[in-house]
Every structure is written in C-alpha cells, then in structure tokens.
Amino acid sequence: MPIHPHSDDEGEALDLQNTRVQKRARCSGHDDNEGLGESSSNEQSSQSQMDFWFHDGDIVLAIERMLVRVHKRVLSRSHVWDDMLEIPQPSYIETYDGLPLVKLYGDTANDWLSLLRWLYNDRQFYTSPSASHFPTLSGALRLSTKYDFPALRTWCITRLLTLWPPLSLVPSLSSTPPLPHALAITLARQTDVPEILPAAFYSLATLKWRNAADGGNAHEVLSPGDLRRVILGREALQELIDEFRSTLDDSPSTLAASDPHYTCKTVLERRWRKAFKDGIGSSNGNGVCVLRTLQEMMIENLEEACDGHLRWHRELARERMEKVVDAVPRMFML
C-alpha cells in the first residue's frame, strides 16, 4: 500500500536499544547524500538496513531500494503514522514475509535511516558526531517535519542555528569546513525554517564562486526566485562595501596637515580602504569576510593612532557592522 503522508500532530522518540536484529532484509540499500560526497558502500548500506530488521517487527517499509522491518508502536509515536495505521485496509494488501508492506514514495533511504536511528535510540543519536553532518541533519529535519516528530524537529533546528546563526553571531563562526549554504536555503524553504535564511543568503553571496565553493552549484540547487535574491543581495552588499571603502564621512573634523592628529586620520583611512579593497568574496571564500572584518576592526589596536581616533575607529566599525546586520534581510528580500 503506497503512502504519501503529511504532518499533523506530535511524536516522540522511543528507546528500544536492547532489541536485537535477527534477519537480513532482501533488498540492498540505496544511498543519496545530495551530492556532498557522503555515499556509503553496498556493505555499509546493507548493514544499516540490517540494523532495522527486527525479528519481532510487525511492518515492513520500502523506501527506494531499502527494506526495513520495524514496529508499528514505534512509528505510532507520531500521530501522523498512528492515524495512517488505523485506516481500515482492503482484503488484499501487499505483504513481505507475511507482514504488511508499505511503500513510501518521495522519501529517501538515507533520510529514513536518520529518523530510525533517532526513534530507536534518541540519546545515542543526539551525541553522535554524524548527527550534525548536513546530510543526516537535513534528512532528520525533512522527515520530522513531514511526519510531525516535534522533539526531533526542534533539535534539528537548534543544530542548524549553530551553523547559520543570527547575523550578529556570524563573524565568530569557523570558516572550515565549508558549509552548503545553497542546500541550507532549499532545506529552510522545504521545512519552514526561515530563521537560518539571512545567514545562509549572506554567506552564499560573499563566497568567491570561481573557487568552486558552494556558490558553484547554487544555480542547480536554488529556485529561480532565491537565485535572484542572491544576485540582488550580492550587488547591494557590494555597494555598501564600496561606501565603507571610499568614504569616512563620520570621521573627526578635517585637520590641517600640520596638525599632529592628521597622521591618525590618514592611518585610519588607509586601514578602511585596505580592509575592503577587493570587495565581496575577497578574503578566502569563507562567506563571512565582511562582518568578520568589521568585528576585527572593533577590537584591533592601531599603534599609529591616538586614543581618541582609535575609539572613533572602533565605534565606526561597530556602527557599520550593525548597519550590515540590519540591511541584509532587506538586501535579500527576506
């Protein structure tokens, strides 16, 4: 019986970690990690499938080329699944080894493996390093949204917000490993997580695309509307950077060349021009160059500048960082 379910209620994880696998499923697994280089071997896929082939399972799920034999009571922790399993069945239904066979169209095997690992041992799932890898995280979020497992969905969103946080926190992020910003935008649209969009759009727009970073395949991943947002936002951000580089209109009053503070002003003007001389994506393609540069300027110590001018320099960097953070949602029409 094919099922195309949707989400409508809540679910929780159930820990059945002591249940043992007794039988191998008949079909090999199929891997799909969204082009991120995470594909498993056939042996690994078969082992993953065996992990969820329980001798006392009472329902068989078919996802792509993978079969798993699991427990209705586990699936029923989601009211979506509980409602589906309560629907009266016709006299003839597809079976596998004498059990109901449910074919899940539109889902992927890898997404289901993420969900099942959480369902059968949520504590182990939460502490596993692989749970924070984007393919696992995105799969868990898709299915927790589709089938309404709110605890898992909340955890996934919390993890995503550590990768794509509020813009004011973006400068403190590590630039390695590179993040799949375009995939994150698509995931946020699919699963209704708009909180990560400003950081994801900003980071994608500030990449040096010719380095074959995430921007290199953005046109294949993003919708036409979101691709247009990236382009327009990048242009608007570049205009703002040009302003930072070429003008210091808020600087202390004009000084004569003979004034001892004239050197301070010259040093600071040179610092601002140098900081943004190459424009968008000029740092190393890490997607945080603009905000990170401004954050560095807020705390740096320039020995050639007097205390008064240095305080002005740091305050100007703070004001302009706030300006960028405030402007990004408008730049990308979010």
TrEMBL record:
InterPro entries: BTB/POZ_dom, SKP1/BTB/POZ_sf. It comes from the Eukaryota. Residues 57-128 form the BTB domain. Residues 21-44 are annotated as: Disordered. This is BTB domain-containing protein. The lineage of its organism: Eukaryota, Fungi, Dikarya, Basidiomycota, Agaricomycotina.
